[in-house]
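Researcher: Good morning. I'm working through a list of sequences from a screen, and I'd like to move beyond sequence-only analysis. For each chain I'm collecting a predicted structure so we can compare shapes side by side. This is the next one on the list. No need for commentary yet; just the structure.
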Amino acid sequence: MSFIETKSAAGEDVLADLNRAFTAFKETNDERLAQLETRLGVDVLTEEKLQRIDTALDETKRRLDRVTLDLARPKLGGAVAEDHSAREHKSAFDLYMRAGEAAGLKALEAKALSAGSGPDGGYLVPTPAEQEILRRLAHLSPIRAIASVREISTHSLRKAYSLQGPAVGWAGETDARPQTANQQIADLDFPVAELYAMPAATQTLLDDSVVDIEQWIAEEVQTAFAEQEGAAFVNGNGVNKPKGFLAYATVADASWSWGNLGYVTTGVSAGFAASNPSDALFNLVYALRAGYRQKGRFVMNRQTQSLIRKFKTSTGEYLWAPPTSLEASASLLNFPVVEAEDMPNVGADSLSIAFGDFERGYLVVDRLGIRVLRDPYSAKPYVLFYTTKRVGGGVQDFEAIKLLKFGTA
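Model: Good morning. Structure tokens for this chain:
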């Protein structure tokens, strides 16, 4: 039995003793009250008994308090220790942000055997602050909101995939199983790169104890991070930044092969066809296999969305529909529309609309830890906070995303 289990069992025993003592106390006190009603005074023996029980009750309560305190103390390697560590980290981080005192954070990172230190780029923000920043990014960064997100502790994520798909076949229950072809396996590599923001604060703000420093840093960096991520997840070239899905090689969907994104065309350069323009949208949707289409989403910018908002069906119904609630998004052909301003405007041979299951198609990789380095010197009288996070991204399933090309071939 573990230490915590032993203490917990002991606490239950003490609690049972306390309940029994209190029951005895109530019975004795009821007897005393009855004596007061029927006699001129209380029996001395009853008073002494009540006093003894009362003393025992106090002692039992003190024992229970001691056991409860022992259970509340952090144990190394346990959940309680993690809670205590989180509180310690929060306190040390707050002191560093307000006054530049880094001794507490240095001691914490030394205890955690962290490779990071001040010279390596700042100090880790507390976990709740990191989670708050990532939560806000999920709302502000459109591709992150619909992609798969994986957290890692290394510099890159490597995934294996089969170039030919799994080797399978049919056989009867007693038939021999012929040897299948050898699998051709390749790797997809998703390195992370450093994304930074540098919010500034006055010393007056930092001295104000009412200001929640973790909340402030989350609010300051959320928009900057989201804008940079949004651009990289769409158009990033993969050099010191994520690789956007539009940066991959594209081919006509009829000639699609793994490693490329397939596209269908509108048949007109820099626009839709004059007659039945919505046919291109239907072609885009049905270029995607049914398994991916179930979670399909359109991705385009506001200008492109304004063009297709006018399209109607042959019965006069609009293809585009507004959100049905605050949490919902607009829809096109009954599929959600994600507005990503980094998608290109409609132009000659532009790839201005994407459709697919981005959860299966695109992967965002976050390296654990967001760091802050305090700089009170570069922009006096302001204090700068060089805030960094490491993020990568790229296409992980080339079948899951299709593009609409505003051209003829």
